[in-house]
Amino acid sequence: MKYDFTSYYDRRRNGSCKWLKLNTIDEKSRDNVIPMTIADMDFPTCPKIVDAVKKYVTTEVLGYSEPTYDYLDSVKNFFEEVHDFSIEKEWVITSPGIVPALSTCVRAFTQENDGVIMMTPVYNPFYHVVEMQNRRIEECALILKDNRYYISFEKLESLAKKDDVKMLLLCSPHNPGGRVWTKEELQKLIDIALENNLIIVSDEIHADITLKGKKHFILPSVDKRIERLSVVCTAASKTFNIAGLQTSNIFIANPELRQKFVDTNLASGIEKANVLGLVATKAAYDHCRDWMEEMKIVIEENQDFVTAFFAELSPRFKVMEQDASFLAWIDYSELNVDEKEFYEFLAQECNFFVNSGKMYGEVSKYFIRINVGIPTEQLKKNLERFKRGVEGKYLYSSAGQN
After folding, report:
1. Which CATH number belongs to the domain containing residue 32 in this structure?
2. Domain check: are 393 and 250 in the same one?
3. What is the rounded CA–CA span in Å between residue 142 and residue 156?
4. Going along 45-194, which residue ranges are E strands?
């Protein structure tokens, strides 16, 4: 490989949220433990991004900044060349992250007590931006069939017909299930939205990290008619591991929706993306696509390893096939253990730090989400600790005979 995907750093020193969990275990036990919770990767940053940021810091002023025409060209070219999706520059609004943009959309396009559809289980901030702004979640639970998620279109259509349901928050590709929605599925979803004047806010942050030849479709590329009712949320942050620079690109083709979004941000005092985030994103889109392709090879290998590991360990674990992302989604319901007990056991007895499925909704409380965006050797060491602990506690002990 041209780039380094084997080194990693103890990120407690820079305040990494997930790494600070290691302070709960003794110093000796921290060796080769990488927390696999929050969805950022533990790989060194692409050198071309580092060089671009260094150059800017040493030669420019770190003042208030707007996206330049060159920046917008980079975004436009990336989506045309990588996703075969054409945008107009005026569609692009920068935001200090996708979650703030989701929150702005809820405020801008709905009223208090309106309904917002979510396909659950789903990325946990979806719940926060709806409930904490006094909107009502309309849950459209995904259908779990043969260890894969499918959209319940019958349920979706019935929810969309409600007079006070104004918006659908879509996770595409799906987090945590890793599902890339097909063109046919997205078309059905679009048809329902058009029929019911339902705004779709599509979080497509994992769109670049498709695996095993899967094709992701940016929502309006399926049917241009949905441009008038859609907001597409994108970022380089997951793909190139620059989330700490808090920069996202929000595509809004409809001028009326776009102005409402901008005005709502102004009313909340939300600023645009920060200048170093713009620099890093431009460098990533212009110069780091080879890094992205190598990263995807490593992620595929790690996903394959996780699948094989659990298949060998016990049929009571089911790993969902991931079409996209560096997240693994594992069903352990056949262990017949309490979810809180299991989650605490993993952290306290195995030094195995992952996200509990309950974070993403009650329907997935017997799942765990594993971030596999770490060096392969460290992933293997983490999983070996999991194996030793779970075999002794749940698989081969008298307590595990259930």
Report:
1. 3.90.1150.10
2. no
3. 10
4. 92-95, 115-118, 136-139, 143-145, 148-150, 165-171
Q: Do both 100 and 41 map to the same domain?
A: no
Task: Give a yes or no: residue 35 inside a domain.
Answer: yes
3-state secondary structure at position 62: coil
User: Residue 310's domain spans which residues?
Assistant: 11-45+289-400
Whole-angstrom distance, CA of residue 265 vs CA of residue 182 = 33
Q: Contact, 121 vs 357, CB < 8 A?
A: yes
pTM for the model: 0.96
Q: Is 181 among the domain residues?
A: yes
| CATH number, position 109 | 3.40.640.10
Instruction: Per-residue pLDDT tens, the chain, 402 aa: give them.
Output: 999 999 988 888 788 888 887 887 766 667 778 999 999 999 999 999 999 999 999 999 999 899 999 999 999 999 999 999 999 999 999 999 999 999 999 999 999 999 999 999 999 999 999 999 999 999 999 999 999 999 999 999 999 999 999 999 999 999 999 999 999 999 999 999 999 999 999 999 999 999 999 999 999 999 999 999 999 999 999 999 999 999 999 999 999 999 999 999 999 998 889 999 999 999 999 999 999 999 999 999 999 999 999 999 999 999 999 999 999 999 999 999 999 999 999 999 999 999 999 999 999 999 999 999 999 999 999 999 999 999 999 997 544 444
Task: Assess if residue 264 is contained within a domain.
Answer: yes
Q: Do residue 18 and residue 121 come from a single domain?
A: no
Q: Is the peptide bond before 315 cis (omega within 30 degrees of 0)?
A: no
Inter-residue long-range contacts of 184-188, CB under 8 Å, 24+ positions, other chains counted: 185/151, 186/217, 186/219, 186/222, 186/223, 187/222, 187/223, 188/151, 188/153
Let me know whether 333 and 208 are in one domain. no
d(CA 103, CA 125): 9
Boundary of a domain, candidates 231, 264, 287: 287
In a domain, 5, yes or no: no
